[in-house]
Task: inverse folding
């Protein structure tokens, strides 16, 4: 056994009670660190998953980030004559050549894409008029590219493939208008076109503002209602790896020109909030470990003070300052590791207990469990924090021990 | 006989508002097989001279040579290695490490040197302790032994790495007459029978009288 480890263990074992108390500090610190951080990370991952699942990873819209420059301004940027109040040409809204873009996208591995034509329509039923957002989509793509199938409470996306005059409505809207599954409803578009649809499916996403206004129908029906044959006003994309969305979207926009927004860009403010939340969370849980580290500092600095004479004797025997520093650093590391090995299982027990807690948030319809993140990085972060805190706590007294001059102590300065 | 340790005009001044001269222009040398005592009244600089000779302190002026090597320019690690391999210390109090058994205390310098295996260290430790009459005290903690036994363990520890020079500071100052006699005989034999140089700082005139040579200090100077 290494001599520094040998002496360090002797010191710790000769003060079993103090050592156990300081280890307990680390145990509790690690357990709380692990439980709280995994709860926070779990809720963050759950939130991001919902964010990713509830919307396309990338949305290409029939819009441009910057308005097109007038040809005359582009040709004569420093021209003497300034043309004012130039009215751009009126263009039909929609993505030009969307079918070609879709083909390209669908040929890429790990990419799912579909065209959408969205428009407003008035639903009149039993004397009530409700404005509905029609999502015209290719029914065959609906299952792959949206999560609506998971939220269906009656009927299925497949029914829309079978019945092109079918419509999927939110349960909240159905309840609001006292509609029933299988009812025929009449929708009127701003173009004056009127169509009758049969309710072949109902969904509940849990977001009432969504469930009250959104409806899914075949894209061809929406194109004809809005007089926009062969047009789509957005392309929605799902990627196998949602994290690639940001760069994929940037490259796509550079290629096709249309505004392409990734889920990260769309939720930038929320993601920034999560970063701030993480900083606050790690600061708070680290404070628990820092307090525990004071326990280690306390025991090691006490040992160093009591051992001034022994340190002097060891130095007179031929131990160097570095040997002495190692002895006390190892004590901190041993206490840290012991605390870690006991703290991790306790943390797991706490996490398991938290997982058993079931509650119903105000306004929610379902009872939910606490989301916990059991991933390896959580354990690695907790371990790294605990060991760093223990080493730092031991380093200060260890440095002091290394600076002891034997002759000062032997002369009677002990 | 070869010169093991030589001090050339060493002076030690403690800095401060009023600097204190502990050792003043001392030149002395020690040879293998010699038993030397350093005597003098309290505050005459005996212990300070011993710390300078033992490389625990650095002289303000002059130099200390160990087996012909000047130690003035050596760094902390080189000095520590010299202390580990060539010097052994015995102090007025035994200063054994309380958590370690007698044998562990004795083998600690061997562990630090790292030349012997665990088995060899144990065998050498047991041999040294048996020679000093401590064969039955191997696994006892310092608190379980008498003062005389502890001081003999301290002597055994000083001999662990087979040093050429043993430096002792009032080694019998805390012992009863019988134990003092035992330790004094051991130290004398270490010089005469094992051909080491033994330097003993002492107030005890009987002990000083046993030495081959006596160095008397007054106010930090040899008189």
Result:
């Amino acid at each position: 056994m290494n001599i520094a480890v040998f002496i360090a263990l002797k010191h710790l074992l000769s003060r079993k009670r103090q050592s156990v108390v300081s280890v307990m500090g680390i145990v509790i610190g690690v357990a709380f660190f692990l439980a709280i951080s995994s709860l926070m990370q779990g809720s963050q991952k759950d939130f991001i998953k919902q964010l990713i699942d509830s919307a396309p990873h990338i949305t290409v819209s029939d819009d441009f980030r910057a308005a097109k420059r007038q040809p005359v301004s582009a040709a004569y940027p420093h021209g003497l004559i300034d043309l004012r109040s130039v009215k751009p040409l009126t263009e039909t809204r929609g993505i030009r050549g969307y079918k070609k873009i879709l083909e390209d996208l669908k040929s890429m591995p790990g990419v799912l894409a579909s065209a959408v034509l969205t428009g407003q329509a008035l639903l009149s039923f039993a004397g009530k008029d409700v404005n509905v957002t029609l999502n015209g989509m290719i029914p065959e793509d609906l299952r792959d590219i949206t999560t609506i199938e998971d939220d269906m409470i009656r009927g299925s996306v497949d029914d829309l493939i079978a019945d092109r005059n079918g419509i999927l409505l939110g349960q909240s809207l159905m309840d609001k208008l006292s509609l029933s599954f299988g009812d025929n409803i009449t929708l009127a578009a701003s173009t004056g076109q009127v169509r009758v649809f049969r309710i072949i499916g109902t969904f509940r996403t849990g977001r009432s503002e969504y469930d009250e206004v959104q409806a899914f129908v075949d894209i061809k029906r929406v194109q004809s209602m809005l007089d926009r044959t062969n047009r789509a006003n957005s392309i929605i994309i799902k990627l196998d790896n949602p994290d690639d969305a940001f760069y994929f979207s940037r490259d796509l926009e550079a290629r096709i020109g249309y505004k392409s927004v990734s889920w990260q860009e769309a939720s930038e403010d929320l993601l920034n909030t999560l970063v701030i939340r993480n900083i606050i969370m790690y600061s708070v849980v680290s404070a628990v470990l820092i307090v525990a580290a004071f326990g280690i500092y306390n025991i090691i600095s006490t040992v160093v003070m009591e051992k001034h004479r022994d340190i002097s004797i060891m130095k007179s025997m031929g131990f160097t300052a570095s040997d002495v520093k190692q002895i006390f650093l190892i004590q901190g590391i041993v206490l840290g590791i012991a605390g870690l090995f006991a703290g991790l299982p306790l943390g797991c027990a706490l996490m398991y207990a938290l997982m058993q807690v079931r509650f119903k948030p105000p306004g929610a319809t379902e009872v939910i469990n606490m989301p916990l993140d059991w991933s390896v990085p959580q354990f690695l972060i907790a371990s790294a924090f605990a060991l760093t805190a223990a080493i730092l706590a031991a380093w200060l007294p260890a440095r002091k021990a290394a600076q002891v001059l034997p002759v000062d102590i032997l002369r009677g300065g002990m | 006989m070869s010169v093991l340790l030589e001090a050339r005009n060493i002076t030690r001044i403690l800095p401060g508002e009023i600097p204190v001269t502990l050792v003043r222009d001392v030149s002395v040398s020690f040879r293998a097989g010699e038993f030397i005592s350093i005597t003098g009244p309290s505050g005459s600089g005996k212990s300070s001279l011993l710390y300078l000779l033992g490389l625990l302190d650095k002289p303000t002026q002059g130099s200390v040579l160990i087996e012909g090597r000047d130690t003035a320019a050596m760094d902390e690690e080189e000095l520590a290695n010299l202390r580990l391999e060539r010097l052994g210390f015995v102090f007025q109090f035994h200063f054994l490490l309380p958590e370690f058994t007698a044998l562990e205390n004795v083998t600690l310098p061997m562990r630090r040197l790292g030349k012997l295996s665990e088995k060899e260290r144990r065998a050498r430790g047991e041999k040294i302790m048996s020679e000093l009459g401590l064969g039955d005290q191997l696994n006892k903690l310092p608190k379980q032994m008498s003062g005389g036994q502890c001081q003999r363990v301290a002597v055994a520890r000083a001999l662990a790495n087979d040093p050429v020079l043993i430096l002792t500071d009032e080694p019998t100052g805390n012992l009863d007459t019988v134990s003092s006699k035992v330790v004094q005989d051991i130290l004398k034999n270490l010089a005469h029978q094992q051909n080491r140089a033994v330097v003993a700082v002492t107030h005890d005139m009987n002990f000083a009288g046993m030495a081959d040579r006596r160095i008397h200090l007054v106010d930090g100077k040899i008189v």
Remarks:
- The CA atoms of residues 317 and 372 of chain A lie 54 Å apart.
- The longest strand of chain A covers residues 111-125.
